[in-house]
Every structure is written in structure tokens, then in C-alpha cells.
Design a protein that fits this description.
Blueprint (H helix, E strand, L loop, with lengths): L2 E3 L14 E4 L2 E7 L14 H18 L7 E8 L5 H11 L5 E6 L9 E8 L4
Parallel strand pairs: 4-5
Antiparallel strand pairs: 1-2, 2-3, 3-6, 4-6
Helix pairs in contact: 1-2
Length: 127
């Protein structure tokens, strides 16, 4: 059994999912796209701004579950264009000065105009 985690002001899901699932001490954060509250894409064409938006949204989910970004143990990153890798990493490094394990894949994303999607797994210290 899990506890759904939906932070205030979160974007409207574009499919049947919740933003986070808390199972004991482990928080699974859904793949997060750069979307506004109504599901519209923000910062069109700017991967750095989209990455910042996505990481802010992930941070809101983790905080709602009682943790911080430092509690994230694993990130799964998808970028739409290989040429955006460096810009995404620049912003990513600002949020994770001591980065967790991760992977990054170049792939077409589910919503047109999105350049980055990140999902996370965190250990938030709850029991």
C-alpha cells in the first residue's frame, strides 16, 4: 500500500498517475515534465528553464513527503535532444552538488514541446 503525494499547485496529470507514491521510507516521484498547473508546456525551447521547473516540481513532491533533494538516491532523466545534455547538466548540478546515481536517455517525450523529463526515488526517513 502506498500514500499518494500531491503537492499544492502541482500540474494536472496528463495520464492516470499521482506525482509521488510513498511506500514506507521510499518515495517514488513520477516522471515530471515541464508543465504548468493546467498541463501546458512552460519555457518552450529552453531546456535549462524547463529543467529548473521540473526540479522545482520534484522538490515540492519530496518536501510534501517530508524530505529534501538530498534524500533522492536515484534520478531517471530523459531529454528530447542530445544537444541539450550540457545545458540540462548545468542546471542539474545546481540542484545536486552531491549528485545521486542516475541515468540519462535521449528520447522523444510524451508531450510535444517538452525537452526534459525526470523521475526520482528518494529515501525520506519515515517508517
Amino acid at each position: 500500500m502506498f500514500v499518494p503525494i500531491i503537492p499544492e499547485g502541482a500540474s494536472k496529470p496528463i495520464a492516470p498517475y499521482v506525482h509521488g507514491s510513498l511506500c514506507g521510507d521510499t518515495l517514488y516521484v513520477a516522471g515530471t515534465l515541464p508543465l504548468d498547473r493546467d498541463g501546458g508546456v512552460v519555457h518552450q525551447g529552453d531546456v535549462a528553464a524547463q529543467t529548473r521547473h521540473v526540479l522545482d516540481q520534484i522538490q515540492a513532491v519530496v518536501r510534501k513527503a517530508g524530505g529534501t533533494l538530498q534524500d533522492i538516491a536515484y534520478n531517471m532523466i530523459f531529454i528530447a535532444r542530445a544537444e541539450d545534455y550540457a545545458a540540462m547538466n548545468q542546471v542539474y548540478g545546481e540542484y545536486f552538488p552531491n549528485p545521486p546515481a542516475r541515468f540519462c536517455i535521449v528520447s522523444e517525450l510524451v508531450k510535444k514541446g517538452c525537452l526534459v523529463e525526470i523521475g526520482s526515488i528518494a529515501h525520506v526517513g519515515r517508517s
